[in-house]
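ingest -> validate -> predict -> emit
validate: passed (alphabet ok, no gaps, 220 aa)
predict: started
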Amino acid sequence: MGQRRRLTQDEAAELYEKLGEALPEPKTELVYSDPFTLLVAVVLSAQATDVGVNKATPGLFALAGTPDEMARLTPEQVEEKIKTIGLYRNKAKNVVALSKQLIEEHDGAVPQTRAALEALPGVGRKTANVVLAEAFGEGTIAVDTHVFRVSNRTGLAPGKTVDKVEEKLMKITPEKYLHGAHHWLILHGRYVCKARKPECWRCHVADICLYRDKTPKPEK
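emit:
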């Protein structure tokens, strides 16, 4: 008999329950102090690691921790603080531009709607979802490479595109797990369900996961 294509609603609920037991209070690993610094950190994290972003942002936020302060900087000044991060030149331009737009269109506040967030320079759907969930408690699930992989590999929400996976996740994720879902999935993918070799022998949801080629525990 072939592998089932996706988890049932009950199995999905059990998967989240077990991930929740392993990590009761999931949260982003990005360091931030308010919605604005979170927004900037998430924009900087595209195609970069949270660890790398966290090394760069203290210097940046010490120089400019508000939209007003950031808008007064030149992209070159921002570049100096984030040049250890990939795509730093383009990101520096976006950070300055989005700060100016926040001032001009939102009185310096980070908007709380997806449409307004996505209208900001450098902000796509994933970034908007992270900000909505983390800063404002919205029930959104941002699909990055880790969430995409875990959703497909486990059978939780298989799909060929990020949008399709997000759509399926929103349908199959029980409401009570919505706020933590993004963090549980991303951290599970980052530390356990790794891309090259998932560490199935220490996985809390291995008995639910539909992945066939589970990695055995390495011999000592």
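Residues 200 and 215 are 5 Å apart (CA to CA).
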